[in-house]
Design a protein that fits this description.
Number of strands: 7
Distance between the termini: 29 Å
Order of helices and strands: EHEHEHEHEHEHHHE
Helix content: 40-55%
Largest sheet: 7 strands, parallel
Number of helices: 8
Structural class: alpha/beta
Strand content: 5-15%
Radius of gyration: 18 Å
Bound molecules: NADP nicotinamide-adenine-dinucleotide phosphate
Length: 259
């Protein structure tokens, strides 16, 4: 299927590794030019090279912290009029909520709620004028089934999800859609870090924690970032213009509910 995206531009936040990179890679395979944002230039260069090797598209990199005002300005300067925005940033640390300070909460809200909202504010009206826009927020399966030690993530991402539920109904008449993708357990650096934190807190080994997580995933494995990127590319496709305000759980069957 041709997704009808050739020549479009995507701003992919937190895109040098993991799920963000997988979205950039899958979009590039559909002919989308990419602006990749992450803090570390070295990983950005590696990521950009990989994409250029696999697809004939333009790739720009911006070394910036997307959770800062300056970082967002740099990212937006590099992508004058994005057709696609992939909102993503590192997740907040795990821990017992009794130890979280107001600063911890503000940091989590900045990264996982306010940054995506600020970026949407900056690009949405241009998308509406041009009659095409796809915004995808990478959130977490924890939005549907909170993970107790990830209180900062559970709270901040739930706030974003509520905001998007309202906004996403105000845009599809202009061929602009806004959706969230909720990853379960994917084999990335962040997930390894999370498992190390869980191991430390519970006194178990990382292997034991990994096995415990696998036992709760009917697919019997961790997700491959590529699978995530391909779902993202479809949600950004021209065919997906009738899909907005949805929360796509991609978790190998880990969530046990009916809805
Ligand atoms: P990852 O593989 O560790 O990659 C994180 C990417 O984000 C890197 O490119 C990193 O580059 C960039 N990044 C982090 N903080 C940034 C910032 N402030 N500004 C710009 N770029 C930043 O992580 P991932 O697993 O793909 O996770 C992506 C998101 O999904 C996170 O919010 C995570 O909590 C969430 N999530 C992941 C899973 C999972 O199983 N993987 C499950 C649920 C939720 P630099 O460090 O160089 O900036």
């Amino acid at each position: 299927m041709d997704f009808g995206l050739k020549g479009k531009w995507a701003l992919v936040c937190a895109g040098s590794k993991g799920l963000g990179f997988a979205c950039a890679e899958a979009l590039a395979e559909e002919g989308v030019n990419i602006v990749l944002v992450a803090r570390g230039q070295e990983a950005l260069d590696v990521a950009a090279q990989r994409i250029r090797k696999a697809a004939s598209v333009e790739v720009k990199t911006v070394a910036a912290d997307i959770t800062s005002v300056e970082g967002r300005s740099l990212a937006l300067e590099a992508t004058a009029s994005p057709d696609i925005l992939i909102n993503n940033a590192g997740g907040p640390p795990a821990g017992d909520f009794r130890t979280f300070t107001s600063e911890d909460w503000i940091k989590a809200l900045e990264a996982n709620m306010l940054t995506p909202i600020e970026l949407i504010k900056a690009v949405l009206d241009g998308m509406i004028e041009r009659k095409f826009g796809r915004i995808v927020n990478i959130t977490s399966a924890a939005v549907k089934a909170p993970i107790p030690i990830l209180g900062l993530s559970n709270g901040a991402r739930a706030g974003l999800t509520g905001f998007i539920a309202g906004l996403s109904r105000q845009t599809p008449m202009h061929n602009v859609t806004i959706n969230n993708i909720l990853p379960g357990a994917f084999a990335t650096e962040t997930m390894r870090g999370r498992m190390e934190a869980m191991a430390k807190q519970s006194g178990k080994t990382v292997d034991e924690i990994a096995q415990q997580r696998l036992n709760a995933i009917p697919a019997g494995r961790f997700g491959e970032p590529k699978e995530f990127g391909q779902l993202c590319a479809y949600i950004c496709s021209s065919q997906a213009s009738y899909i907005t305000g949805q929360n796509f759980l991609i978790d190998g069957g880990g969530y046990p509910g009916t809805l």
